[in-house]
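Suppose a classmate hands you a notebook page containing two proteins, each written out with its sequence and a corresponding row of structure tokens. How would you begin to make sense of it? This section walks through that situation. The first entry is reproduced here exactly as it would appear on such a page.
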Amino acid sequence: MFTKACPLKCKWCQNPESQKGKAEVAFYSENCEDCRKCIDVCPVGAIDKITKISDYSTCTACGACIDICTKDARRMIGQKMNEIDILKELLKDVDFYDDSDGGVTFSGGEPLINPEFLNGILRSLKKNKIHINIETSGQFDFEKIVDLLPYIDLIYFDIKHLDKQMHKKYTGITNTTILSNFEKLNHIYKNVQVRIPLIPGVNDSIEDIELFCNYLQENGHTTTHLLPYHSMGNSKAIRIDHNTEIFKVKPHSKGEIEKIKYQFSNFGITPITYD
């Protein structure tokens, strides 16, 4: 389950549609046949008469343009759901969870910025013996999430950079709270697994890798999940805001990834990657 709203604004974000904590309308220009009906029905005049691109500072995501479009050129991203509706949706797949030894993963955005809302959902899922995984950026109020821990089976904790200023440059905030939360969580909760997004030219130097490995070892970790950068987030970003600054870097080659994995291993950390 993807939640919307994230306190970070990573330049390489793979899920830019989850950054804002509100519904948004995505525009798929390749489907548009220029009928211009969406322009006529927009109650706030947010759609440009020439480009058909929405002014997202004006758009209220009322859905009128989506309802009138017969070509699926406009789609709603996000919807408000209460606890009951979410549980109904998640429990539909309980047989699949049982058969596959799977469960529910909460991602985002940042799911832990709404701990009070999440609490009831996690309790109900646990009553149904469903495995629960949380994917977090680490930017949350630690004291408010402690009560959630008995209901969580696994936490994937992202660490993006160990240099405070570099972290702020590329994510919009420093890593002070994130690292503090990781260290506190690491002391009271055993099922934390670190993930590192590998961003070319940002956190993949030999110096960066050594710092990552030293930090992980200092905190009792011998493995980490490596998430190689890919550019698929760019195409999603421009659908919801054409003024988005595109993050232009070339993804690592397979050979480069193998070299980075070797470097992690050489510093004593076993890297985990996914094909």
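The notebook's second entry, a different protein, reads as follows.
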Amino acid sequence: MQGYVDRETTLIGSLTVREFLYYSALLQLPGFFCQKKSVVEDAIHAMSLGDHANKLIGGHCYMKGLPSGERRLVSIARELVMRPRILFLDEPLYHLDRFLFFPFSVHFSVIIL
């Protein structure tokens, strides 16, 4: 199974990071409730989103939320919830500086073409 993260991903700004990832898991993953919750927490930890897990995603002109770099990490975490063997990222460093990209590169083997 593979995952793909587009450069500009649409997120539901009225949800928190944890809610957004949890709803994605509920809709896409088979299995029991407790398994899905642990997968979401693993994705939050892997992308170093623990400090932002209970914050609104936002992103609309009327709703303040996460900065663009953290929204990019949420998009990647949403695909990680699906536990892909290969994850394709369209412009992997888009909206990410080296400090935001570092946690991602530590947990995964990264090949940038």
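A careful reader of the second entry would note: The first helix runs from residue 17 to 28.
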